[in-house]
Automatic annotation (TrEMBL):
It comes from Faecalimonas umbilicata. One of its GO terms (cellular component) is membrane. It is a multi-pass membrane protein. The keyword Transmembrane applies. This is LrgB family protein. InterPro entries: CidB/LrgB. Keywords: Hydrolase, Membrane, Transmembrane, Transmembrane helix. Its main location: membrane. It is found in: Membrane. The lineage of its organism: Bacteria, Bacillati, Bacillota, Clostridia, Lachnospirales.
Length: 230
């Protein structure tokens, strides 16, 4: 059985897309906020791999093609931003300082918790890029001496949590301005949070898309500085 899956070109691709499709269907039918399609897909794939006794390397060999779509998908996020360019120009400084505050909050919280729990430098820098997109986060983690595989997992968890609870957090603190909501989701939970922002509205989606790129660049610089703190 394992040999069959290792020789299959589309095994990993099929179960990944199928699991995500089932996640979308479950959320549509049940309408429960915590039923995030990405989270459900991750759980489903783990269960399938364990039941069929297929190791990750075998699965990834046929699922890696999905990763090639990450770059064009990210580029496509520029479309809603272009459509809201005038709004961005009118609120440039608010947007800039909003993203800056989000990046500093992310890096500062990681430093505070790492210090509190006595994490090693390697563990600390592994967590620093938790709120930026995977493509940038892996590079930052490797450059600083972190464990890139754990960084990927942390980035995914951060994105899923932001997607699930981000909207409720904004409502809890009375944040209803579309620009502020979009910036918070994009800065805190990268592309997965942006998917939620696009569901909330065009303005939220555009600001969240902008946050991915700008917060990524700021984190590259900021993480290098914060890495020296511990």
């Amino acid at each position: 059985m394992k040999e069959f899956f290792s020789e299959s070109l589309y095994f990993g691709l099929t179960i990944s897309i199928g699991a995500y499709g089932l996640g979308l269907l479950a959320r549509k039918k049940l309408k429960w906020g915590f039923l995030n399609p990405l989270l459900l897909a991750i759980v489903a794939v783990i269960v399938v791999l364990n039941v069929l006794d297929v190791d990750y390397a075998t699965y990834n060999e046929s699922a890696k093609y999905l990763s090639y779509l990450l770059t064009p998908a990210t580029v496509c996020l520029a479309v809603p931003l272009y459509q809201q360019m005038e709004l961005l120009k009118q609120n440039f400084w608010a947007v800039f300082w909003g993203i800056t505050a989000g990046v500093l909050s992310s890096l500062g919280s990681v430093f505070g918790l790492a210090y509190l729990f006595g994490l090693s430098h390697e563990q600390y820098v592994t967590l620093l890029p938790k709120s930026i997109t995977t493509a940038i986060g892996i590079g930052v983690s490797e450059e600083l001496g972190g464990i890139s595989t754990i960084t990927v997992a942390v980035i995914i968890v951060t994105g899923v949590l932001g997607n699930i609870i981000g909207e409720y957090i904004c409502k809890m603190f009375g944040i209803r301005e579309p620009i502020a909501v979009g910036l918070s989701l994009g800065t805190a939970s990268h592309a997965v949070g942006t998917a939620k922002a696009l569901e909330l509205g065009e303005v939220q989606g555009a600001m969240s898309s902008l946050s991915i790129a700008v917060s990524g660049l700021m984190t590259v610089i900021g993480a290098s500085v914060f890495a020296t703190f511990l």
